[in-house]
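User: structure tokens for Sugar ABC transporter permease, please.
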Amino acid sequence: MPKASQSKLLAAEGQAAVEIPKRNSLLAKMSRDKYLLLLCVPGLLYFLIFKYLPMWGVLLAFKNYQPYIGFFESEWVGFANFKQLFQDPIFFKLMRNTLLLGFYDMVFFFPAPIVLALLLNEVRISLYKRLIQTIIYVPHFISMVILASISYLLLTTEGGVVNEMLFSLTGQRFDFLTSENWFRPVIIGQSLWKEVGWGTIIFLAALAGVDQEQYEAAIVDGANRFRQVWHITLPAIRGTIIVLLILRMGNFLDRGFEQVLLMSNALNRPVAEVFDTYVYALGITQGAFSYSTAVGLFKAIIGIILVFTSNYLAKRAGHSGIF
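Assistant: Done. Predicted tokens:
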């Protein structure tokens, strides 16, 4: 046999010998970790049943769905529902209200857990730190209905505690619950009180992994506490901040349906109407299932675009991003 043919045969046998152990190795690993893989089954079923299968329903956005006819027999209308949405005069008001709430959320709410986590990280008495953490975690477990009721009792002009205090100081009462100017501050204030403590959990976990020797070296170099936070603490959790920021951009147009619905009324509705409440009003109360699905799909597409854009910008800035 010629040497060239012999070398090719040996190379093919060697390649086959390499491929077989790899395949066997994968099966061996799966067999070895079968109980761990079994633990993944409930999570996979959850995402399959509640996340992926419902995505079939987005086809309603391209149909004129009639419940008495059924999903498959309803007429295909293409992009007619989207055209109706963009031509609706209320579309720009919905977009404006939703974007403003999203902007205020990013400016005021997103940095708040970071600042609070940095402050808690400076507390050296363990018992005192745990007590503060417990207190600020509790509002997360309060129902939004209860929070709206508390807000009403505090802010109403008819005997509200806050309004009574302001009246004793300034001689006037403020329409926190009915004024268009106060609606967005009240919504952001509620979000801060309810979720800012819970949001510190991830950042405190990231801060726990910061190398303490860096602080010792900074102290030797004469750095004060502010310099230590600026040059050591913040860079150490920068990756966590960027990942959470990218994920939050996906929910930029999700403004908390329950909260906005409970706090809106006839007097502040011009600034309180957002996509979430609009979908509820059309899809549930008026039965416009196809049109409301188109609105929801529009929101989802915008969220995907924002996630990919922010992830791209993060990578261009030298960070890892989320994918």
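User: Anything notable?

Assistant: The chain has two domains: 3-58, 79-316.
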